[in-house]
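Subgroup meeting minutes
Present: P.N., E.W., G.H.
Scribe: E.W.

1. P.N. recapped why we're keeping a running log of single-chain structure predictions: easier to compare across weeks, and new members can see raw inputs and outputs side by side.
2. G.H. added today's entry (278 aa).
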Amino acid sequence: MTINRRSFTMLAGITLTSALVSSVMPALAAGTLEAVKERGSLRVGVTQAPPWYSKDPATGEWTSGVGVSAGKAMAEALGVKFEPVEVTWGTAVAALQSNKIDIMFVLDATEERKKAADFPESPLLYYSLAVLAKDDLSVSAWEDLNKPEIRISVPQATSMDKFLTENVSKADIQRFPGNTEAIAAFQSGRVDAVCLFHPPLIAARQKLGSGKIVVPSPVKSNPTSAAVRKGDAEFVAFVDGQLKDYYQSGKIQAWYEEFLTGFGLDPKAAPPIIKELL
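Output recorded in log:
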């Protein structure tokens, strides 16, 4: 067989593709639970978004947040280490597909995401969509924001982004990689409001010292969940059982209140994240 430049390039491409596929296949073939135990760690997607995930700037360690607490509890249940892996809300599903993470907490089970990832039936927690707006901005309903002169920041490729696109399309919607960047746009005055679910806004308002948190009407409340790789029924069932325990035992609310207290906030002043307590 004669190998010319074109043939060599094709063979090299096939070899590279095979190598990439091979790096993902062992975990998929063995199943996530087996792969996690063999590796000795549960890889949890994390992104700077208090109160869900928070990195200690002094140490660079992911030390607090509801997602961090849930990840550590799940790792402990499996007898392995908690291994945080930095992603963004928009790249979390791709990170699951490419076998870079095993799970991502506080990810809404949208119809679009369900095509690429699996979600347990049990909710992780509930929250309401809200905005942190300028003090002088008049807003009580979503329609108040549906104007061309209103600038709103939001993390891209999220359920919040989808909601704004469908309900306040006339506004100037500015999309950012994550919560931190969206909040920074509000802090710098580049936008009039930032749209997130209410818990992160409580932490942001505390840090910024200005702005007002509004839950516009009609109120948009929904559950959030945890995403895992598609097609692994055993791992989905395990995660479902863990989330059910976190929710029904009140652990998820306790972790939330623990973060708020550590952040200098009174948990009693914040809406709960368990639906039955709302």
